[in-house]
Structures are given as structure tokens and as C-alpha cells.
Amino acid sequence: MNQHVDNSGQNRIESPARISSILPLLLFLGAAYLVPDTAAGTTYRFAIPWIPELGVNLSFVLDGLSVLFALIISGIGFFVTLYAVDYLHGHSHTGRFFFFLHLFMLSMLGLVTADNLLLLFVFWELTTIFSYLLIGFEHESAESRKSARQALLVTGAGGLALLVGFLLLEIATGTYGISQMVSGGTSLQDHPYYNAILVLVFLGAFSKSAQFPFHFWLPNAMAAPTPVSAFLHSATMVKGGIYLLARFHPILGNSAEWTATLVLVGALTAVVGAFTALGQSDLKKILAYTTVSALGIMTMFLGGQLAPSLMAAMTFLLVHAIYKSALFLVAGVVDHQTGTRDLTKLSGLAWSMPITALGTFAACLSMAGFPLFFGFIGKEIMYKGALAEALMPELTAIAAVLANGLMTGVAGIFLIGPFLTGPARHSEPAPEACASMCSGPLVLGGIGIIFGMFPDFVGTFLVTPAVLAFHQHLEPVKLELFHGINPPLLLSVFTLALGTVLYLSRKKVNQAVRRVYEFISLDASRVYDVLLDSVAGLGRFQNRLLQNGSLHRYFFIVVATFVLLSAYSYLQNLQALPDIALPELAIRQWLLILLIMAAVGTVVITSSVLLAICALGVVGAGIAIIFLAHGAPDLALTQLLVETLTVIIVSMILLRLPGLGGKREKNRIKKCFDAALSLSAGVLITTLTLSMLSTPLDRYLTGFFENNSYVAAHGRNIVNVILVDFRSMDTLGEIIVVATAGLAGYALIQKRRGKS
Description:
It is a single chain. By secondary structure, this protein is mainly α. The radius of gyration is 34 Å and the shape is elongated. β1 (44-51) and β2 form a beta hairpin. The model is unreliable at 1-10 (pLDDT under 50). It has helices spanning 2-20, 22-39, 64-87, 94-113, 117-135, 142-173, 178-184, 194-208, 217-220, 226-232, 240-247, 249-252, 256-277, 283-302, 307-338, 349-352, 354-368, 374-388, 393-420, 435-453, 455-468, 487-504, 506-519, 524-546, 551-572, 587-605, 609-629, 633-654, 668-693, 700-713, 718-726, 728-755, and strands spanning 44-51, 56-62. α3 (64-87) crosses α21 and α18 (374-388) packs across α22 (487-504). The protein is built from 32 helices and 2 strands.
């Protein structure tokens, strides 16, 4: 009976989940509808004011680049949504999953269509937040929580750096509009902020797209459910940094610093990622490290300045999104149907799961770059671009060949081992998954074949418009299946041969990779752990130092900080000693001052609680008399009321506490520090007050309030108008603080009464 109830409840959740796949489908159809227009060079822009005072608008752009990303995001999002319905069947939080998934998809679409720096940053951070929620979806798992926190901290820190870069970019260009920056044609290379902007933008892009040394978070994020990995970590989120580099190519590119950094970082990431993948046995970890490698390849070619390199980056972007999302879905199918993703425990799945095997076959051959597959086209144009560049062409070509050769070997390991080698190792053959789970790998694998057979169509309508969006001077580069016998073709053949050799010697290579990482005791992930532990240790130290429960220490630190910072600022801006003239006071005023000073001294030295309370009352009353003498009866009345209430409350509290006799036993050194700090604070406040009074009074604000209090706020009492109208939010905040403190005190009293 319980099972029946659970299933019916789950069916009620799954129906809306399946219906929700209409959203990415409609978005995909809408983006596809724009393809002919963007291929013809049309750009759509939409903008409405958001914060016009700061020059921030809700501005969006739809051109070849954003439409290509929109097609990838929404198309793969459709298959992932259908896939996840059955993959998460029976999960108690399915509704929450699809809510986060589609909010992430919309955030990613906002990111790739935003035409304003601050708007782009908002969507950038939204993708970070929703990726954190999706990676940590299995929140009861410690591994999921740790991986989600790691992804959030790494990409979030990069996002903060990116924000600073955007602010500097606005200072350098005078606008937050990305299109305005591009159309302005202003070269930033000679600007004094150029290098700082470049570093900050790189930090944001590299952390998001898992470039070395920030690459470690992506494999660890495989703790997320497989649909999340297929969507975020192969096709969308990790491509955010790639999109950023492409969009900012005309603004920050065309410099040796841009090219050298992207080529070196991309090449290192590509080789390290592919090499590490050969040492893994978990299907998702293998795909994660090859994704790192692919992202490195894209970054490397975005460092180029010529059309073939940029065409290679955008072509491989599409190639990778198609085959890698298919393979992630395959890994999920295998895990779902067999209960394991371990290569050493899988074999012969092609005989019991033929449809999944067919999709795997197509995706792996595209990943390996076999002829007639889209991956072959991607490698051809990649090698052509590497050889055409003027800066570091040898390094680019070698890194591309080595990374692609390693990924070819990985493709063989992924396909042949689990699917085509020997009989099934399970006592009962794993059944084929349902249609919604098999359709994704099968269709995406089929697209890899179709695009490989009709590359000119893909180049004309998808890749070339994307490149033209950020590289206006595009030389004709045609995607073809066969360009003749040339160096790129020979490099493609060599890549396949290298991959074959690596597959045949996979056991030795796997052992070699493991030995290398055993020998290397320091890697980026361990550095992250050390930094995280250091921050936690610093927090504990500060907590012991600052939050030790001593009110005396809290107050001492606050006052000392105020004195030091204020005195430093005052002395730094002091051109010459001000001519401070002591005010001429009447005898009654001097007597009032002496009375207040005597009352303060009494509070300090007395051991009687009652006498200290009375002395505090004298201090407050004396200040009220000063207000009254200077023509401020409202302030004087307020001071008297507050002082009276304070004395009553303090009396009720202090008379129930131990006496003040303990002051006599206080440490002498401590008392000297307290006295020195008190005198310093008094001297500072007196100096600041006299300095202010000795300078001409700026009546700008005074005149403003005098002219606007009655006209704008309809009030004759200027002080009341300031508090209630001009500073209403500040006053409201103070009221909230006081009310919150009162409620907290009331709760503590009630709790105390309950215990007694």
C-alpha cells in the first residue's frame, strides 16, 4: 500500500516535469527561427532602462554567437529534462530539481544574450548559485555538499574578480554596454588599466571554464546527478567562460598578452586534462577530465587572431557540446541500469543495451575524430588554425595533437571496454533503458553524423555567424569533409594513430598516470584544501581573540580602532596645524563643564553602584542643559527623556548585579591602557570638534533643508523633517534595531522565567 501511494505521488510530480520540457523546446525553436536572420548578418537588440542613473539597462542582443549558445543550451536542456524524469524516478525532491534546472537554463540564456556588463554579471552569478544548488542536490551526501561548496567558492571568487574587471572596463570605456564598446573601436591596449582588466577577466573566465589551475573543481562536481553533469559540466555552465572570452575578443584581444596567456593556459589545461583522464576508471570522471581538456583547447584557439583559429574554437565548441552531453547521458544510463560506473566491472553491454551502445558508438567516434563525423571536421579546422597563427603556432599544434590523441584513446576506452569487450559480467544482463533516457544519446550521436556529412550547412548557418559576431574581418573559411591531402589531414591521421597506440597500451598508460600523481604530492585540489583550512583556522583564531565573551575587550577594540583610523585620516589630510581658538565661556558654562567632568570621574573611580548611576544621570542632565543653552530645546527634552529612561533601566539591572568593588583589584597595566585609550579618544574628539568649528561652515546642506523642508515635506520643524522624510530609511532602520533588541530582551526574560 505504501508503495502504491509513493508511486501515485511520484506520478503527480513526473507529469509536470515532462510538461516542463516544453520550455526548453520552445526556446530552441525560437532560437532556430532566428538562425537564417543571424546567418544573413542581422542582429537583434532590446533594451529598457533599469538603473539609468548608473547607465545600467536591461539590454539584450541576439546575434550569431548568442544564438549558437542559445541553441546548445535549450536543445541539450530539452533532452536532459526528458532524461531526468526517468533517471530521478522515485526521488523525493524531483520538483525541486526541475525548478533549479530550468532557472539555471534561463540564467545561462540571460548570460549569453546580455549586452550590459552588470547585467551579464548578474546572470553570471545566478548560474553560479543554481549550479551550487544542483551539484549539492543530494544534500544528505557529504561528498555532494563538499563538491557544491568547492564549485561555489572557486567560481564565485572568479566572479568577484570579474566584477572588478567590469568596473575598470567601464572606467576605461565610459560605458557598460558591450555593443557600444565594440562599435566604439577604441583600443584598450595602451590604457593604464588594460593589464589589470585582462587579468581580472581571465580570472573570471578561467575559474568558470575550469582552466588550469582552477580545473580541479569540475571533476569533483561529478558528485552531482548525471543530468546535471550532462547539462552544466559539458554543454552550458563551463562554456560560460568560453563565451566571455569570445565576446570580449574584439575589446581586449589583438594583443600579445591576450594571445600568449590563452595559448599557454589553454595548452596546459588541454594536455593535463586529457592525460589525467587516462588514469581514471569512473566513467563520469573520465568524461570530466576530457571536458577539462576540451575547454583548454577552446581557450587556446580563442587566443588566436586569425579566422581559422576562431572558426576552430566555435566549431569545436559545437562538436564538444554534442558528443560530450551524449556521453554523459550514456554514463548515467549505464549507472542507472547496472548500478556501477566502474570500467573494471563493465563489459558486453552492447548485447543487452543495443540502443545505448549505438548512441555511444556515434558519440565516441565523433570524440575520436573519425572521418564522416563532426569531430573530424572539428579537428581538421583546428589544425589548420594552429598552423596559420603567427604567434606560437608550433606550441598550439603540438598541444592540439597531443590532447586530441589522448582523447582519442579515451574514446576507445569508453566505447570498447564497457560495450564491445567480452560477455556481460553481470549474472543478469542489464536491460535497455526507457525511451526517454535512450533518446538523448541516440539523437545527439546522430546529429554528430549528420553535421559531419553536411559541414558546409553547419559552417554557413551556425559557426560562421558566431565568429562574425566577435571577429568582423573574417576571411572565408569553409567547413568541408575533405580539403585534400594537406598538413591538417596528416595531423588528423597521426592523431588517430596516436590514440590507437594509447588504447592498445591503456593498462601501462593508466599505471603511468597513477604513478605520476602519486609522485606529485602537490596539486591544485590540495592547495585549495590547504587554503580552505587556513581560512577556517584564521577564523577560529579571530573568534578566540575577538569573540571571547568579554564586553570590556569588545568595547576596547571598537574604540581603539576608531581612534587609530580617525587619527590617521585626520593627520594624513592635515596640511598645516589649524588655528584653533578656544571659545570664550562664561563662568556658569565653566561650572557646568566642571560638574560634568566631576560626574565622569565619579563613575570611573566609585565602587558604589548607586553613586555611579546617579553620576551617569548628572552627565546626561549636564549635556541636556548644554543643548538648552544653545537654543535646542527639542534636543534637550529628548536628552532628558532618554537619560531618565536610561537611568531607570540601568538601575534595575545594576542593582541586581554584584558591586563595583572588583574594579580595585583590576590589573594595573590594564587600567593604564584603559586610561590611555579614554584620554586619546577624548583628545581626538575635542580636536576634531574644534578643527571643524575653526573652518568656514559649508551651508549647502543647511540651505537645502531650509528650502525644501516645508515645500517638499510639508513640515516646519526641520529636524523632524530630516528624521521622518529625508532620512526615513535610516530612521526606520534604527527603529527596527531597537525593536529587535527589545524583542530579544523580552524573549530572554521569558526564557529565564520559564526556567525558574
